[in-house]
Amino acid sequence: MNSVRGARRSPAEHLADAFTSGSVPGTVTITEIPYQAMVGVRVDRASDAGARVASVTGGLPAACGEVTGTGSVHTLWLGPTEFMVVAPEEAHDSLGGSLVSDLTTALGNDAGQVVDLSANRTTFELSGSHARAVLEKTCALDLHPRVFKAGTAVSTELAHIPVMLWKTSAESYRIFPRASFADFLGRWILDAMREYASPEVP
Amino acid sequence: MLLISCPNCGPRDETEFHYGGQAHVAYPESPNDLTDREWAEYLFYRENTKGTFAERWVHSTGCRQWFNMLRDTVSYEIHSIYGMGQPRPDIKSTGQSSEPTQPGEFTQAGEFGQAGEPGLAPGAASPTATTPISSEGV
Ligand SMILES: [Zn+2]
Fold first, then answer.
1. Which residues of B touch A78 (CB under 8 A)?
2. What CATH number is given for B1-93+100-124 in this structure?
3. Best to test chain A binding among B3, B4, B6, B12 (most A CBs inside 10 Å)
4. Which residues in chain A touch residue B13, judged by CB atoms under 8 angstroms apart?
5. What's residue A7's pLDDT?
6. Which residues of chain A form CATH 3.30.70.1520?
7. 3-state secondary structure string, A115-133?
8. ipTM
9. Does domain A36-118 have CATH number 1.10.3720.10?
10. What is the whole-number distance in angstroms between the Cα of residue B49 and the centre of ligand 1?
11. Do residues B54 and B86 touch, judged by C-beta distance below 8 A?
12. Using one digit for the tens of pLDDT, what is the confidence trace for A80-128?
């Protein structure tokens, strides 16, 4: 990693110890996944440019909730012509990757936009058998697995702030709050997790 | 709390949306020909309908798309949600069913300021009345 990388501070870095001590292994845990590469894409997915972008991302989601991609690059549906591409840090051009430039090239001069939003949001990973119970304290959506299935992502509100919520597996969620909300949401989730550190009252 | 069915995202809490005021206010054909009064009326004058009202909403926390809604400003019942650019659906029969005057419902008798109790500002509802819905802050 280069020196610029070493100087970076992630939005919830100061909560790292609290995340560790507040996690209850096997029940509910929270970690920050800092610095993921994120690219905002606006393109008509039915257009030629949409097809070129899709060939870089491994598809573009067609409807609310859908997530496309395989391996490490995933694309979340934000709107009918708006998408968020999420990839590991190393995919970013500043660290030897080519995600942003590949997408920019794919769009070319056609209508749309490709914007590097890697610093816009951070990522929280909330996992465990009680992760859904924590989210249900604040999320108005139906998070029951019959409705909210693994592999889908929605933009909604947690603790009254706008987030992207991606269910990555049966008991694991990735939450994307904007950087300025990371402290608030991190502390809110820690507070919501606290009761699960104590024995359950029958 | 209204539960609003976004055409793209499905039912979501009202807090995910923002209100865009009256729908179907057409931009004037030739704005330069308007008098100042006509221009001001285009910009600022809106219906204050009691009953079925066509209005614009945007799903600001979700897909960020605009849509139209037919909503009853008295009962808050949502009669229809339809796309931008589509004409207002005809739902006369539904509108009539929500019309009957019930005890305690706001009724206007005579001129404003003459029917209510003393001390009420002109246009103010009486204390037991349903407050008319304004177009702000819904
Ligand atoms: Zn929506």
1. 63-64
2. 3.30.2270.10
3. B12
4. 140, 157
5. 87
6. 36-118
7. EECCCCECEEEEECCCHHH
8. 0.86
9. no
10. 26
11. no
12. 999 999 999 999 999 999 999 999 999 999 999 999 999 999 999 999 9
